[in-house]
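Quarterly update from the structural biology core.
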Amino acid sequence: MRRYALSAAAVAACTAAALLATTGHAATTSPPSARSVRARAAAPAAAAMQRQTWLYPSGTGESECTAKKEYADDRVKNGALKPEYWSVNSDGSVSLETTAGGVCNAYSAANVSDLKAHSAFQYPTISGMTTADVHALVSSATKRKNAVSQLTSLVVSSGVTGVDVDLEDYWSWSTADFGHYKTFLGQLASALHAQGKRLQVDAPAMTEDASYYDYAAVSAQGVDELVIMAYDNEFDTASGDRCAPITPYGWLQQVTRYAQSKVPDPSRLVIGLPSYGFSAPDPCDTDAITGNIQFSDMRRSPGFSTDPATVKARRDASSGEIRWTSGGTLYDYVDSVSLDAKLAVLSRLGVTKVSVWSLGGGNPWFTS
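Predicted structure, tokenized:
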């Protein structure tokens, strides 16, 4: 996703500060050992942070379908599971994604029951990934009303916590689109709250005010939790450079502090972290990035290694991510050590809730 990019000086300063605060090492030193990072991430504040995670539907036998086995270890027993149950169609209507035809992670009474058995909160997601689809939904009073009714009805009948709204392609929205989006959120919040349910909204990672999105204005629509998707920084790489990491420590710190300035109540702010990988030409071509690569696929990439010495040498000091090149392609993925270190950054900033994209394919999780 497209993000606001920091200047080189700002990145360097934030990275050094984040590494020093998180690991006890300046950016010019060797990356922290797995043991030292894990010890810091396991501090009481980090351990108490509420954890949430997304999962999404796919065909039988696909790697996404391991998500149910992954959360069965109760990794979010006191947190939230967020399966994608609805998608926005090109005409603005909303479709319920069910398990008919062998689709995993989609809606069924059995899947809802399983979610409840392994989490304290459940927020099924409505997903719209293009400006055209979002516009078709939010610009029509009839489509908004139908969607609000459809979402609220299922949430109430299934007894889950609420709805997670993930409508994206923000930077291409018009002022009118953003206004209609806020109207939709306000209407959905009112309907959910009337039934004792809650609303989460997924928001882009930002480091300064922008014309296309406003955290405070969105939060004011009755949103119970604003979820900042603090990942995909690689898409902001300058032309000719090597692709940036998914979530550098310094960038994560700046995104979080900006979000906190707009939504100061920590109980209403969730920071999203990545658990996936990407590949891209080296030098970077952001139009040719292959993103959201699950670990089960990443480990089949050319040059992948689990050798401890090799992993240590490839660990990026600015993000903790594992990065290497092979055949003119850069590979980057987030492992458990990197996740622990990112969590430690958030803990030091006073964040109380974190959400991970995503389960499935054996994607790494926190070590404690």
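The mean pLDDT is 90.
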